[in-house]
Amino acid sequence: MAEMTVVHLLRHGEVHNPRGILYGRLPGYHLSETGRLMAETVAKAVGGRDIVAVYSSPLERAMETAAPLADRLGLEITQDVRLIEAGNLLEGRTAGPGLALLRNPRNYRYFWNPLRPSWGESYPAIVRRMRSVIDDARAAARGHETVLVSHQLPIWAIRMAAERRRLWHDPRRRQCALASLTTFTFDGGRLVSVGYSEPAGSLDPGPSVPGA
Questions:
Q1: Neighbour-count burial of 181, counting CB atoms closer than 10 A to its CB (0-12 exposed, 13-18 middle, 19+ buried)
Q2: C-alpha to C-alpha distance for 56 and 202, rounded to whole angstroms
Q3: What is the dihedral of CA 107, 178, 163, 166, to 10 degrees?
Q4: pTM
Q5: Cys-Cys with 200: which of 18, 23, 147, 179 at CB 3.0–4.6 Å?
Q6: In angstroms, rounded to a whole number, what is the distance separating the alpha carbons of residues 48 and 127?
Q7: Would 208 be classed as within a structural domain?
Q8: What are the TM regions of this chain, as residue ranges (predicted)?
Q9: Sheet arrangement for strand 4-11
Q10: How many domains does the chain have?
Q11: Of all residues in the chain, what percent are helix, strand and coil, respectively (each to 5)?
Q12: 35-62 confidence digits (pLDDT tens)
């Protein structure tokens, strides 16, 4: 019989971002106090599971989210650039509430093709790199569980691909809250289920800046 392997995709916790910047891949954005509590809460919730490896995007907010879980399990964090936030040509700009970026005339030139999307890394490219790192992590943890800390859009894109749903979407409809877990269960190399949970859901302050 093939062995069951579980891959948890953990979105990072809340970031300290008082200016509402779409920070994307920019360095220097760390977890807020609430974000640190989210990371601790997730570590307590899943720290007793059969997790044998912890991977993380190299960005600070992801590494800081991974740290409490890795410490609890006595594991080193493996940085993997394939888990990084989606590339975005608008990073560094003030996002504003809702879809304010889309309503700003200075940004219109970026929005000629929302199906790609034209303002950043393509959905298929995100799916390819996420599928690659998930396959590697699954193979290394065969018969056990592993946690990969990443960002909202990469996690959502690979979930949509796994569920054979279209990749283009309304960002407001993503089911991928701060510090949430999107869980892929494999029977051998075959994906048998996709689950979702929010161990730190009671701490979520609500909608966050896009590109987070």
A1: buried
A2: 24
A3: -10
A4: 0.91
A5: 179
A6: 30
A7: no
A8: none
A9: 77-79, 51-56, 145-150, 4-11, 181-187, 190-197
A10: 1
A11: 35, 20, 45
A12: 999 999 999 999 999 999 999 999 999 9
